[in-house]
């Protein structure tokens, strides 16, 4: 399997000392799942992946992880809806002064949508936001 951006993503997290990654994966994450499988098959070190049923749960778990261990965790969310669902937990992180590295996906795309899995379905466009700060205004 070729070295991909997703491979580099997990390599960098490991280099940063991130040992745990709390995730709520969706349609924008197949390349991450493939990179994890490939890394594990080849014995490369990647953060431990803990799947959460909801974005709020993922961030709350990362907060608890930091408070219990003193180690920062990464959180991977699902596109703009994931960031919206995480709003209350982000507020909790801020108020408790808990560090956390948060990533939100963006559906993959190519110039002309010529590859399967890129934005070739309506849902891929409906759930993406070009600017996270303006998620609310895009819905109005």
TrEMBL record:
Pfam families: TPP_enzyme_N. GO terms for cellular component: acetolactate synthase complex; mitochondrion. One of its GO terms (biological process) is L-valine biosynthetic process. Gene3D superfamilies: 3.40.50.970. InterPro entries: THDP-binding, Thiamin_PyroP_enz_TPP-bd_dom, TPP_enz. Residues 4-113 form the Thiamine pyrophosphate enzyme N-terminal TPP-binding domain. One of its GO terms (molecular function) is flavin adenine dinucleotide binding. It comes from the Eukaryota. Belongs to the TPP enzyme family. This is Thiamin diphosphate-binding protein.
């Amino acid at each position: 399997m070729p070295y991909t951006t997703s491979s580099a993503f997990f390599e960098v997290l490991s280099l940063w000392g991130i040992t745990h990654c709390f995730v709520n994966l969706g349609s924008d994450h197949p390349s991450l799942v493939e990179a994890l499988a490939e890394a594990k098959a080849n014995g490369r070190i990647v953060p431990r992946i803990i799947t959460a049923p909801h974005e709020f749960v993922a961030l709350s778990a990362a907060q608890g992880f930091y408070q219990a261990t003193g180690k920062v965790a990464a959180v991977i969310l699902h596109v703009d809806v994931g960031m919206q669902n995480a709003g209350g937990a982000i507020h909790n992180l801020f108020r408790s002064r808990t560090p956390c590295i948060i990533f939100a996906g963006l559906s993959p795309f190519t110039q002309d949508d010529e590859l399967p899995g890129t934005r070739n379905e309506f849902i891929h466009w409906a759930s993406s936001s070009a600017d996270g700060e303006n998620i609310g205004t895009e819905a109005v």
